[in-house]
Amino acid sequence: MDEDARPAELQALGTEECYRLLATQQIGRLGVNAENYPLIFPVNYALDGQVIVMRMDAGTKLAAADHANVTFEVDVIDQRTRSGWSVLVRGLAEEVTSGHRAQLIERTKASGVEPWAPGEHGRWVRLIPHAVTGRRIVPGRLPPAFGPGAYL
Question: Alpha helix (H) ranges present in the chain?
């Protein structure tokens, strides 16, 4: 098959590759159920081994996430090449409080997650994964840069 004629391809990612990709980013989307709706919040994160660590303030996001099953998604998309990847983590979120072991509190705070948004972000949440899946889209033949096909 001619290289220029190959179709786009969707590839499933293994767990190890998903974690490798997660480690390259700092912002993801936390999905929770709150106020009778599924809600999505952008959050800064870091990894502590295979656990996702987030910082946030008190409010809807924290109340809905603490001790709840949540989803967490990170993606990178290149619109020019129509390529990219997405990783979805499903698991249990738990706020880390003074009631936890000192070693866990220290590890959580040492994860390196730094909020970008201004404001108070003094609450720490760990997401313990139950399932990690991912996909990568490999581009096929791209439309010409100029002409009607480039705008569709």
Answer: 15-22, 60-65, 102-109
